[in-house]
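Predict the holo structure. Ligand: 2'-deoxycytidine-5'-monophosphate.
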Amino acid sequence: MNIAIDGPSGAGKSTLAKLLAKELNITYLDTGAMYRALALKACNENVPLSDEKAIEELISRTSIDVLPGENGSIVFLDGKDVSNDIRQHKISKMASDISAIKCVRIYMVDLQRKIAFARDSVLDGRDIGTVVLPNADHKFYLTASVEVRAERRYKELVARGEKCDKAQIKDDIEKRDHNDMHRQFSPLKKADDAIEIDSSYMTVNQVMNKMLDIIKGRK
Ligand code: DC
């Protein structure tokens, strides 16, 4: 069984994907973390994101592994656990930029399909229902208002001890939405057969129960 959860940043995809994976006892794959890991490497090595050849070369000497952990996915970049480093605010923007590059998408989609075809899994991202797994058994498109998403991201960053400004975060989220929705390759969009859920005024449990009802055919 494969479950696809797509939607903009901060809509609650990874929280729900983790919970569903646990409840259904299947693998959770955080595909955004994979783009973040590559962005981190480009950042550490000062590789300009405008140089597609350099990015292609970077990919050729990069290994990214995502393994299930207690609290979601553990992400390894060239064998090193970078699960924490990839959550930095500056890496969010870089991940969005790097994910627009064609060779990056080809590499990631291939990797994600290999993982998903090998086991029952729930994947969250931007193009799972449209490109990575168009035949997924269940597809969800999770959204929330930009205000609610900015508030959630703000709390998350504060909890991580990062200094941040709420208005700036809202602005960054809007820019990232625009980037992700308007890029040429695999832009973020709802698959025709995905079920849309607006989580703005729902608790995590309410969203989770709604998804489980659909998956288990109770509604
Ligand atoms: O879900 P996230 O915020 O960790 O993802 C980081 C960036 O990666 C996001 O801005 C867009 C990109 N991404 C993508 O293009 N396709 C995916 N399947 C997952 C993430």
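The longest helix spans residues 102-118. Strands lie at 2-6, 27-30, 64-69, 72-77, 80-81, 121-125, 138-143, 195-198.
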